[in-house]
Amino acid sequence: IESRESDWRDQINDCEKRVLTSSASHNRLRWRARRGVRELDGLLLPFSEVIISEGDSKRIECFDELLSLPDPVLLDWFFQRAFPDEEILANLVREILDFSNETAPR
Predict the structure, then answer these.
(1) How many whole angstroms separate alpha carbon 36 and alpha carbon 59?
(2) Composition of the chain by helix, strand, coil, percent to 5
(3) Cβ(78)–Cβ(96) below 8 Å
(4) How many whole angstroms separate alpha carbon 7 and alpha carbon 9?
(5) Distance in angstroms (rounded) separating the CA atoms of residues 32 and 30
(6) pLDDT digits (tens), the chain, 106 positions
């Protein structure tokens, strides 16, 4: 009986660690989406909530990669003065712009 109880507690501890790690990474992603540039914040912050709520790790990873880029590069992409070379980033930029257009107050 003691062995089963120990296994059960280990499983709960593992689950709690995953939840805490996930929560911490989501908070980190939200923080990174805050750029301090009004135009970028208006695009990235609302979209970060959608990405996080969906929980798709591949999309979160791609969004995280986008957030690693400098603000001038992102501004050029979002204002369509330049375009990402990587197709996955180009698709994400398009998706963020479409999301922003769909959710913008009319």
Answers:
(1) 23
(2) 80, 0, 20
(3) yes
(4) 5
(5) 5
(6) 555 566 656 655 554 444 434 788 888 999 999 999 999 999 999 999 999 998 888 999 999 999 999 999 999 999 999 999 999 999 999 999 999 999 877 6
